[in-house]
């Protein structure tokens, strides 16, 4: 077993419980290092929903995951962890966390399970997978020599959070074994905007808004929730999920629009604005929007609308009102790129799943070689879905390894 993260620990413990002799190689002194910081240290370990809903939250290669998710769906994942002594709770968006709000409890429970299952842990970095003259797995090369083995499950993660040990080693191993690797890029990552109003709005966290991502003027993502303006652009749950749909900035143009009032139609919002204007009819426009927008946003709205800030409310024209309504319903944010991949939650890209058996996670090219977790070319939205993928694919590989 190569990699002591979520997928690696799940695969190792599952295989060991079947009576196999399992050696888990992890260069970090502590297992589950990335798992311990996920969900801001709280560990959103799954989403309490069905397989179809999980599949719908996977923008890349969702069908590949059907067998693994069906075999180990969220209810079974939750039962598994509660069986390890980790009480769980479900929060908004059906996100599942440990009752303690401590990711270490999840990781430590897995470590104790591995120990009780007889998994041996080796704190060394595996450099490559060794194969025999027939191309079948025969061992792994470490800095201390070759360790013979019949099967290898690669669970090295992607290249996000490189300080936790996710440095892309598994991609090199896959390439050496003849596998195709889809170029790794950042996913679930904050987005950079050249718009000057982003720094001005830094810290503003609108909730219950609808965020839409456009690729070359085509709507490719739209969802309601919360987000956050920052000095570099935008971030927050909605933005992170939207980023999973971005393919290539060199070939495509991307932009966002924000509906700050999704519960109101344009006509309803116009009626609301007219009521406010009647209430503040003798004030300047800059002082008449406080019931509709936070203080930091008002100068931005006025600037983008093109209406002079000292315009008296009673002299605002219908055309000018329509410009304000358009900003409330489709506030534009230009996007020029993503933040660095070391700020991404997960990696998009990885080992091409066309070369992996979805029922077993076994390589179709090399006998005895398996892949699970983030090293594969699958990723999902934020909300516990990516850890669910790790648990399901790791469990799948752990149950299948050695059966051939």
What can you tell me about this protein's structure?
The strands form seven sheets. A four-stranded antiparallel beta sheet has the order 14-15-11-18. The chain has a four-stranded antiparallel beta sheet with strand order 13-12-16-17. Strands 2-4-3 form a three-stranded antiparallel beta sheet. The longest helix has 16 residues. The model has no long low-confidence stretch (mean pLDDT 94). Helix 9 packs across helix 11 and helix 10 packs across helix 11. The chain contains twelve helices and 20 strands. By secondary structure, it is α+β, with helices and mostly antiparallel strands. Helix content is 29%, strand content 21%.
Characterize this entry briefly.
This protein is an alpha+beta fold. Helices cover 29% and strands 21% of the residues.
Features:
404 residues; four-stranded antiparallel beta sheet; 12 helices; 29% helix; 21% strand; elongated
Number of strands: 20
Structural class of the secondary structure composition?
alpha+beta
Query: Major sheet: order of its strands?
Result: 14-15-11-18
Report the biggest beta sheet as strand number plus sense, adding barrel if it closes.
4 strands, antiparallel
Molecular shape? elongated
Report mean pLDDT, rounded to a whole number.
Answer: 94
Helical stretch count? 12
What is the CA-CA span between the terminal residues? 17 Å
- The stretches of 5 or more residues where confidence is low (pLDDT under 50) are none
Q: How large, in whole angstroms, is the Cα Rg?
A: 25 Å
């Amino acid at each position: 077993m190569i990699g002591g993260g979520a997928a690696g620990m799940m695969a190792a413990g599952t295989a060991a419980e079947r009576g196999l002799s399992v050696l888990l190689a992890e260069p970090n002194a502590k297992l589950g290092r990335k798992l311990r910081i996920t969900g801001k240290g709280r560990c959103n370990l799954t989403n309490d929903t069905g397989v179809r809903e999980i599949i719908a939250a996977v923008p890349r290669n969702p069908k590949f995951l059907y067998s693994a998710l069906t075999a180990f769906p969220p209810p079974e994942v939750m039962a598994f962890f509660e069986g390890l002594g980790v009480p769980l709770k479900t929060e908004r968006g059906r996100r599942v966390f440990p009752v303690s709000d401590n990711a270490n409890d999840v990781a430590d429970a897995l470590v104790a399970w591995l120990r009780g299952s007889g998994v041996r842990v080796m704190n060394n970095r595996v450099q490559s997978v060794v194969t025999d003259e027939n191309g079948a797995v025969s061992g792994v090369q470490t800095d201390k020599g070759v360790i013979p083995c019949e099967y290898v499950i690669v669970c090295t993660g992607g290249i996000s959070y490189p300080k936790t040990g996710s440095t892309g080693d598994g991609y090199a191993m896959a390439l050496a074994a003849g596998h195709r690797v889809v170029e790794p890029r950042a996913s679930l990552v904050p987005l950079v905007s050249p718009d000057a109003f982003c720094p001005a709005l830094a810290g503003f966290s609108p909730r219950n808004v609808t965020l839409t991502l456009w690729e070359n003027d085509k709507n490719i993502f739209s969802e309601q929730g919360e987000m956050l303006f920052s000095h570099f652009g935008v971030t927050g749950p909605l933005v992170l999920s939207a980023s999973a749909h971005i393919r290539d900035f060199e070939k495509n143009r991307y932009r966002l629009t924000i509906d700050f009032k999704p519960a109101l139609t344009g006509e309803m919002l116009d009626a609301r604005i007219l009521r406010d204007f009647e209430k503040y009819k003798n004030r300047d426009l800059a002082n008449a929007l406080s019931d509709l927008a936070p203080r930091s946003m008002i100068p931005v709205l006025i600037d983008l609308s093109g209406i002079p800030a000292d315009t008296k409310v009673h002299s605002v024209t219908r055309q000018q009102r329509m410009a304000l309504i358009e900003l409330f319903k489709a506030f534009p944010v230009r996007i020029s790129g993503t933040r660095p991949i070391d700020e991404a939650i997960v990696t998009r890209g990885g080992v091409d799943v066309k070369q992996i058996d979805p029922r077993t996670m076994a390589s179709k090219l090399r006998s005895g070689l398996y892949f699970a977790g983030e090293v594969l070319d699958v990723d999902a939205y934020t909300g516990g879905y990516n850890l669910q993928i790790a648990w399901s694919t790791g469990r799948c590989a752990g149950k299948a390894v050695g059966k051939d």
